[in-house]
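Reading a protein record of the kind used here takes little practice once its layout is understood. Each number in the token line that follows is a code from a learned vocabulary of backbone shapes. One such record is shown here in full, so that the layout can be seen directly:
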Amino acid sequence: MSLIGDKVLHAAEYAGFALFLALAISASPSPRISPWVAGIALAAAVLFAASDEFHQTLVPGRDGNLPDFVADAVGAVLGAALVHAWRWRAARTATVSGTSPR
């Protein structure tokens, strides 16, 4: 597999991870967590990516490297941005009241 294809797969994997993590976090009943869902998911995904790359340095035959971490982080940013945009759009188009023309 080409180097570019490998990085695209890393990014896609972590975009999905951040997306699903945000969906899981948003299931929390706490109204204090709700505005921070995308940020919490992004932070958790990036920290996991860092720990994964570090872990690979401890495994014989594997190596953790910065380009893989960057691809993972970019994917996490894209996934979290998608969630943020989705929630922003949903909040913006939500009906204000039962009699609102929106």
